[in-house]
Amino acid sequence: MTTGSVVNETFPAAALPSLDGVMVDFASYRGKKLIVFMWASW
Amino acid sequence: MVEQYAGSGFELVAVAVDAQGAKMPRPFMEQAGATFTCLVDSDNLLSKTFGFKAVPNGILIDESGEVVYQKFGGFDIRKQETRDLVDAWLTSGATAGAESSERTEVDSRVHVLFGQGLALLRSGDTIGARAKWREVSIFDPDNYVVHKQLWSIENPERFYGENVDMAWQKQQLAQGL
Q1: Mean of the pLDDT values across residues B28-42?
Q2: Considering Cα of B18, then B23, then B29, then B32, what sign does the dihedral take?
Q3: Residues with Cβ within 8 Å of residue B126, at least 6 apart in sequence
Q4: Per-residue pLDDT for B1 more than 90?
Q5: Over 80: is that where the pLDDT of B161 sits?
Q6: Residue A39 is nearest to which of B16, B37, B66, comparing CB atoms?
Q7: Which of B15, B103, B105 is facing A37, going by the closest CB pair?
Q8: Which residue of B has its CA nearest to A32?
């Protein structure tokens, strides 16, 4: 089941830790083009 | 793989989806000599937010913070079509008819069970965690974000050696595991 695309909506407020545990807020990239690439080592 | 784009006036953030935390993706990123920001999503935060059941995924976000393109599953910068899309967007800001993935509704029970398993894993109860995630894989069999993490803690040798053993994964699926 799909609920439609979120394209053309603002990227949701979210923050995640870096490999070193420093929290990074996605909103801090405003003003620049941003590519978020999600991957896994599994 | 993405280094060639460095300095093209954009930012790249790689998010490793891994319940076991930074220790799993770190060697891969160090080996790749990553110069971009590497984040870790241990709680399936982005899967909850965006509704996806597999990776690799790519999301393109413009200067105003708006999502202009999203691809869930199979976003691979080694593919020509992906490179063309990214190049065009960086150059012109347009995504030229590229079709975005739909958001999938992930049942809230999946997130509850995953969260319970995660709490158990963090408390050192790997067996309990596996049981919770096994429930997810029965309830929502195409949820690879959970299913493959279950496999990876059950059979680390298939995942964290030289190569991820894809033939083994196919065999597991064929056997309904």
Answers
A1: 93
A2: negative
A3: B120, B153
A4: no
A5: no
A6: B16
A7: B15
A8: B63
